[in-house]
């Protein structure tokens, strides 16, 4: 690691860890959604909305710290990119839950549970990785695995689209379900953006 003569603001590490932990909360709510009936889904959506607001607060705190800090632990643009990508993940997960409730989806298509399982695993890996930004240790396996998971998510998404367009669903239902699976795919992409940003930071700091 590069030797520095100046002190660095360390609260960013704690804030990134808190943001990632909140994403784990969101992924657990997604898992709850799978087996829930309509009233339970509405309650899950409320809890997801609260988690999304907590994620916004965490992101704003990082931006405020960034604007008020003279010394930062790594490049400012990377801090901004990492915070924004973490926030995007939470936004997409909240949007997916909200759409399920707003569209009164009775049954999610087979394969959505696989999407959510991939997101749950990516959330766990991201939460485990954030504290390691302090030392830049043990991060290579993290971004490799998240990129693998994103590739897996792509395959699941393509199969879901093929299933939706096989003639089983009417046109309106296809539009509703496609929007939900597309948003879940965007969440997987956002996890990859986080991992790629972490890799960029690690390369710069090596």
UniProtKB/TrEMBL annotation:
Which protein are we looking at?
Phosphate transport regulator
Organism for this UniProt entry: Streptomyces poonensis
Note the superkingdom of the native organism. Bacteria
* Family designation: Belongs to the UPF0111 family.
InterPro entries, per this entry? Answer: PhoU-like_sf, Put_Phosphate_transp_reg, UPF0111_domain
